[in-house]
């Protein structure tokens, strides 16, 4: 599935979960920000709190699915993440 492939792409260390530092890079790409653009830390943390349901400090794939579908999966079935 495309969502799992994208999740795994950002799980840089292969731990099976996305840590905050990995999430920051994922969010930058999903929001199509240029390298020199900054997302306010408050907005990044707000997204992180929505995503990290169990407050474990990392995001499992099951937590990622509804968040991704809600915020970033378009009606045209095209993912905003381009490889």
Topology readout:
Blueprint: H1 2-10, E1 17-19, H2 20-30, H3 41-51, E2 58-60, H4 61-71
Antiparallel strand pairs: 1-2
Quick description:
51% of the residues lie in helices and 7% in strands.
| Silhouette | globular
Strand order of the largest sheet: 1-2
Helical content stands at: 40-55%
Q: Separation of termini?
A: 15 Å
Mean pLDDT: 83
Backbone structural class: mainly alpha
For the largest beta-sheet, the strand count, sense and barrel status come to: 2 strands, antiparallel
Secondary structure tally: strands: 2
Please provide a written account of the structure.
- Helices cover 51% and strands 7% of the residues.
- A two-stranded antiparallel sheet has the order 1-2.
- It has helices spanning 2-10, 20-30, 41-51, 61-71, and strands at 17-19, 58-60.
- The longest helix is centred in the first third of the chain and has 11 residues, at 20-30.
- It starts with a helix and ends in a 12-residue tail after the last helix.
- The protein is globular and about 30 Å long.
């Amino acid at each position: 599935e495309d969502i799992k492939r994208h999740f795994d792409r950002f799980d840089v260390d292969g731990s099976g979960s996305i840590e905050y530092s990995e999430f920051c890079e994922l969010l930058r790409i999903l929001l199509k920000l240029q390298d020199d653009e900054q997302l306010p830390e408050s907005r990044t943390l707000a997204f992180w709190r929505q995503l990290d349901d169990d407050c474990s400090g990392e995001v499992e794939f099951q937590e990622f699915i509804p968040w991704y579908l809600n915020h970033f999966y378009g009606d045209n079935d095209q993912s905003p993440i381009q490889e």
